[in-house]
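Suppose you are handed a protein chain with no further information: no name, no annotation, nothing but its sequence. What can you learn? This example shows the usual starting point.
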Amino acid sequence: MRPDTPAAHATEAERLLRTAARYPEDQEPLLLQAAAHLELAGERPQATALYDTLLSSSPASPHLIRALKAANLWEYGHEPEARAIIEGVRASAPADAGPWEIVVETLESHDELELSETFATEAARLLVPESAPTDLPHATRSLLATRHRVRRMLALPHDDWDTLADTLHTGDVPLDELHDPKRLWSLGSSDPAELQAEIIRLRSELGSYRTALSRPFPVAVLHWPEAELDELLASYPELEAEYPTYRAHLTDIEASLRELAAAGTPNLGIVPATVPSYEAFAASESTSPANASLLPQYATTLAARGRATAWPPARGAGCWCGSGNAYGECHGGEVQE
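A reasonable first move is to predict its three-dimensional structure. Written in structure tokens, the prediction is:
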């Protein structure tokens, strides 16, 4: 989770910049996270400079970086430049929902509701198959939810994509209630029941915002391939309490991820671990690899470097464990005891 104070955001940005210097092959995800922290710390010109650095280095996600740069520029007074970048993203018609969502939310936050809805509808037309599957990527689901909110504020009637957004929404409070434009009036109510109901809705909505903020920071679980785990335990037998057997390790991964998913934790992932990488990480933290408390930090660092694979795998995809079987026929079935 991101820190809560501007000072902590600035400190975290500095740490990420140092990490990017050590791992140039992972520069893009690290600098993106550093830029996000700089924005939250109020250091918006520095964040723009990072986006420019990324755009000059043939990035893997140029449309996303441009969208983030536009959102940042608009926030500190560069509206014309931001609008020009947004139109460029639109003309490029990216096949990923991430840039579209950033653009749609930026327009919404600056009261450009009609234009926001137009962009969101163009994105839905481009990204959502006619079969309207329920296993859409997280970013596409989030985009549909944002489109739903904008259309509610515009008092537009539900269409098929709004219905799909309702279907995909898993929160306790329905989207129609969350996105009701009249909700602001309830904040001035003297009725305790109305105020309590609004508190519940706000908590649910806060969960959605936390999801959006956590996009670059997946909650990741370590997966040690069997050979790596054997080497790890041979070198550091103190960790046998964490990993009694390889089979137990695999079972624990699936069980942990299911538990997190059941608790509503979004953006889950699995990161492959190796002994040399882990030893190097331990050295950078000035501690011993036998220290079990280092394992979660190692997982978080790998995820921050863009090494996480999303969990659960897509329908029909191979299992994350590397067995060669489909996920549904392997760990996607019932958790083995």
